[in-house]
Amino acid sequence: MGIVNINKLDISYESTKVVKQLDLYINDGEFLVLLGPSGCGKSTLLNAIGGLIDSSGGSISFDGKDVTWTDPKDRGIGMVFQSYALYPTMSVEKNMSFGLRIAGVDKDIIAKKVQWAAKLLQLEALLDRKPSALSGGQRQRVAIGRALVRDADIYLFDEPLSNLDAKLRAELRLEIKKLHRTLKSTMIYVTHDQIEALTLADRIAVMKDGIIQQLDTPHNVYNKPANLFVATFLGSPAMNCVEGQLKIKGQSTYFQSHQLSLNVTDYPFKSPAIDGMPVTLGMRPEHLFTSLTKDDDENSLTGVIELVEPMGSDTLVWSRFDSEHTLSHRTTTEFEIHAGENITVKVDAARCSIFDSNTTQRL
What we know:
Keywords: ATP-binding, Cell membrane, Membrane, Nucleotide-binding, Sugar transport, Transport. By secondary structure, this protein is α+β, with helices and mostly antiparallel strands. Strands 6-7-8-3-9-10 form a six-stranded mixed sheet, sandwiched between helices. Helix content is about 25%, strand content about 35%. It has helices at about 40-50, 90-100, 105-120, 135-150, 165-185, 195-200, 220-225, 230-235, and strands at about 5-15, 15-25, 30-35, 55-60, 65, 75-80, 155-160, 185-190, 205-210, 210-215, 240-250, 250-255, 260-265, 280-285, 290, 300-310, 315-320, 325-330, 340-345, 355.
């Protein structure tokens, strides 16, 4: 079992509160990612779960057992850090088995666990090597193997891939995802990399200033952000955000901002739209579809291309649609376009996000 229940957790450094009255329930076998910018409290929260720092209030329990003040070695967890922290004079086998040897585990059991972890992580041929003879990805796999031999129900990962290049990060993301499916253990993973979060997580907890802003599936966090912070933090490039207001005309609802007017009647409002309400319209680049010709569609906009960024599989375009609005949008590589040309896009209002400008919460 690997259920983690955090209740009203407070963590302070002197007079500064880093984590504030935080509630979080993590299901057995779940892969939960703590995502947020530097200083948001995600690593602090992970360290508190691991017992490496003390809380100033609230409780942490594993499978119903209060472990708030339990020593890290007695929590039955495996931890993988950003730094590999391998002993340079020890072989891979010795590094992986060090904790078990210190704990006095039988040699035969240690050998079996190391062989099992080495096979799982494709390290069998490297067991006699020293860390200096390994690549960065291999060293990180050794660090993961050192955590796995503890045979824990809960594994904690603190930005384990941030020191690797892009290719290695992609490879190890795949390995960690496979590992989770094989072990079916609870994994809590800290990162500021949204790609890691979206590809690995069962659920993502987006944090800001020690508070969870949204806890949901990757699909919902990306497509239905709870507030403006979540909306703009996820996505590369960031979501287009335009300030304006709602206008009710008969049975239709419009978003208006200067010369920009869009029909948002199909938007799934949680509560009735209010005429004149100040709102922020969020449009991801993929919600603006390139069209060869302008038609009578109310949500068809014509502008002038300012910048073209070929991305390989598609093209990112920045276009100015009036004196106030420059928006980013994606187009397929079949369109050959250049800066200075006119372009028409259609906005998919149903897939956009609308936020209350006063509260920044999703409507």
